[in-house]
């Protein structure tokens, strides 16, 4: 069984930065694709960024150049560095672990960006 625990969310002014973390239990983290998703009020959950076990990354157009996804396999931890935050980045951010055919979600962490 895999458990994912996000942390690092909070309230920040526009233009500020936050770093999210996602700690994973179990032994499959280093072999898994990891991703960050977000869900704003009244909207569907959307992908933000993902990173393969080999370190290849992919970003949503809306966050390219501002967010950086990374992972530390020795610590079973996923990160999302968020810079130049905008009010439209306000959402609950979730991490996802994919180890085909299974996937697991964390409980989410709230990010609020004030204008």
Folded structure, characterized:
It contains no helices and eleven strands. The protein is mainly beta and 115 residues long. Strands 2, 4, 5, 6, 9, 10 and 11 form a seven-stranded mixed sheet that branches. The chain has a four-stranded antiparallel sheet with strand order 1-3-8-7, with no helix packed on it. It starts with a strand and ends with a strand. The model has no long low-confidence stretch (mean pLDDT 97).
Task: Looking at this protein, list some descriptive labels.
single chain; 115 residues; mainly beta; 7-stranded mixed beta sheet; 4-stranded antiparallel beta sheet; 0% helix; globular
Query: How far apart, in Å, are the first and last alpha carbons?
Result: 40 Å
* Structural class based on helices, strands and sheet pairing: mainly beta
The helical percent reads: under 10%
Report the oligomer: single chain
| Radius of gyration using CA atoms only | 13 Å
Q: What is the percentage of strand-forming residues?
A: over 45%
Total of helices: 0
Order of helices and strands: EEEEEEEEEEE
Arithmetic mean of pLDDT: 97
Overall form: globular
Largest sheet: 7 strands, mixed
Total number of β-strand segments? Answer: 11
Low-confidence stretches: none
């Amino acid at each position: 069984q895999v458990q994912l625990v996000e942390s690092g969310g909070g309230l920040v002014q526009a233009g500020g930065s936050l770093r999210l973390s996602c700690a994973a239990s179990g032994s499959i983290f280093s072999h898994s694709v990891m991703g960050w998703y977000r869900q704003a009020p009244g909207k569907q959950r959307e992908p933000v960024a993902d990173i393969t076990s080999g370190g290849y990354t992919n970003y949503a157009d809306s966050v390219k150049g501002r967010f950086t996804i990374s992972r530390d396999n020795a610590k079973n931890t996923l990160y999302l560095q968020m810079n130049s935050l905008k009010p439209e980045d306000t959402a609950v951010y979730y991490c996802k672990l994919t180890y085909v055919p299974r996937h697991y979600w964390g409980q989410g962490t709230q990010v609020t960006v004030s204008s």
